[in-house]
Design brief:
312 residues, mainly alpha, Na+/H+ antiporter like fold, 15 helices, globular
């Protein structure tokens, strides 16, 4: 347990440091949005391209891993969707609030997962986790747009909206380029690879600082049962589901630990923008994402320790 916490301490420290930088005004609040955009649109795609293009494994070896993760997010989506009517009756959860519960229970903070996996397993682990993006990101983008459209009263979802959201996601482009380079054996020109490598090296640290800067104590004051429910589903139910699916798909060893990590990290912060622009409850999203980050300081070390004790 202590080893797992020690491994995660640098990650949690960077998150805390980001919060201090914003709160102290050393880096003003309005500048963090630009930092987040650079990380999302440039640094992480560069990291995914270089990692996948030089990955030392066959993608066929990861088919069970990818399928298990895909089934996991589909089942979690179904579970939360089935809770809509009971939540409306018992907690009086309205449509926008439900979309936020859905988003924060199903989305995952892939950047935090990358930082953890890089710390524990290095480049090989990062390459394996990149396949998790392939397995989960397209589905999560599509299903969350559908849920927001259906329950936040923003109209009928169209194929154009959904396809556009996928094509505009830079992570999908980074993954696609990296996989194509790996499968075809194409070697990126040295100047281009070096440029991408330098960009990618900054991705993990900067994203953790930005995550800390995005923590909202003010939103936490308005938190309630919806926050607790979404956090419980994201941080505890999803890892248990992942463990169960690992038996079904025979995912073991390092792949199992990485699968559990992907299932255990807090929700993605970019869902806040989607909630704000598509009629979801953005304030509830800010409260829930902050609560999940704080709770994960306890849940993540424990879950990773248990996963490594079992799988390694």
């Amino acid at each position: 347990m202590l080893t797992a916490f020690t491994s995660l301490l640098p990650i949690f420290s960077l998150i805390a440091f980001g919060f201090v930088l914003r709160k102290s005004g050393i880096v003003p609040s309005e500048q963090w949005r630009g930092i987040e955009l650079v990380t999302f649109w440039l640094l992480f795609p560069a990291l995914l391209i270089t990692t996948l293009a030089t990955a030392d494994f066959s993608f066929g070896e990861l088919s069970a891993f990818a399928l298990a993760l895909f089934v996991m997010v589909v089942l979690m989506s179904l579970l939360v969707w089935l809770m809509h009517r009971p939540l409306k009756r018992t907690l009086n959860v309205n449509g926008p609030a439900f979309t936020t519960i859905f988003q924060t229970a199903t989305r995952w903070h892939g950047f935090v997962a990358l930082a953890i996996v890089d710390k524990l397993f290095g480049a090989t682990g990062v390459a394996i986790l990149a396949i998790a993006f392939v397995a989960m990101v397209p589905w999560l983008n599509v299903i969350n747009i559908l849920v927001l459209t259906a329950y936040a009263g923003t109209g009928r979802p169209t194929a154009r909206i959904i396809i556009g959201a996928l094509l505009r996601n830079p992570l999908i482009w980074g993954i696609s380029i990296g996989i194509i380079a790996k499968v075809t054996g194409y070697k990126l020109p040295d100047p281009l690879f070096t440029t991408l490598d330098l960009l990618g090296r900054g991705a993990l640290g900067i994203s953790l600082l930005a995550m800390g800067a995005g923590l909202s104590w003010q939103a936490m004051r308005h938190s309630g049962r919806e926050v607790v429910l979404a956090s419980f589903l994201r941080l505890l139910v999803t890892p248990v589901l992942a463990l169960g699916l690992s038996f079904v798909f025979n995912v073991t060893g390092m792949q199992l630990v990485i699968m559990i990590i992907a299932a255990s990290v807090p929700t993605a912060v970019n869902g806040y923008v989607l909630a704000r622009t598509m009629g979801g409850d953005a304030e509830l999203y800010a409260a829930t994402s902050t609560a999940q980050v704080i709770a994960s300081f306890i849940t993540l070390p424990l879950i990773i320790w248990l996963a490594m004790a079992y799988a390694m």
